[in-house]
Amino acid sequence: MVSNEEEKVTSQEQGEAVNPEVEVESEETEHGAGDEEQALDSRIAELEDQLAQAQEQVIRAQAEVQNARRRAEQDVEKAHKFAVEKFANDMLPVADNLERAVQSFEGADEASKPLLEGVELTLKTLVDALGRNNLEVVDPEGQPFDPNLHQAMTMVENPDVEPNTVLNVFQKGYTLNGRLVRPAMVVVAKA
């Protein structure tokens, strides 16, 4: 039989023998844990960078979608706004011809007065219909010349008016929702 003291010595010897191994393992574990922590930290940083890039890509994609939607809405709005432009261009010569017909009745006898009234009413109806569709008449007689709305056909000296004033209108112009459809053809006073 082994005595208690021998057991104590044996267990101490075993403990001493075990303790140095434990210390060596704990040092290796701490050293290994430090490497693992660094690896994890670098992996976390890498993943955070990837996340930031993905978030930036999402924001850009959302902005592109919003821009595309806005452009599409503007295209639809313009299509609605200017859908009658081709039709209006086809109707403008009709208005011009009716105006010429009214002018040709000047000085006519009383017998042609009902015909004149009919042509004037037809012209008024056409101009009103064009106006309801946002087609506005540009009749600049007596106004300053505006190259954005008027086309000068000729320039005439006239000391009674200021230079660059519209003296006469050969053909009225038209705008559709503020956009020029046809410029007014005018005679302009020169200095």
Automatic annotation (TrEMBL):
It holds the Pfam family GrpE. Its main location: cytoplasm. Signal peptide: none annotated. Residues 1-10 have a biased composition (Basic and acidic residues). Residues 1-42 are annotated as: Disordered. Transmembrane segments: none annotated. Keywords: Chaperone, Cytoplasm, Stress response. It comes from the Bacteria. It is found in: Cytoplasm. HAMAP family: GrpE. Participates actively in the response to hyperosmotic and heat shock by preventing the aggregation of stress-denatured proteins, in association with DnaK and GrpE. It is the nucleotide exchange factor for DnaK and may function as a thermosensor. Unfolded proteins bind initially to DnaJ; upon interaction with the DnaJ-bound protein, DnaK hydrolyzes its bound ATP, resulting in the formation of a stable complex. GrpE releases ADP from DnaK; ATP binding to DnaK triggers the release of the substrate protein, thus completing the reaction cycle. Belongs to the GrpE family. Homodimer. This is Protein GrpE. It comes from Sessilibacter corallicola. The gene is grpE.
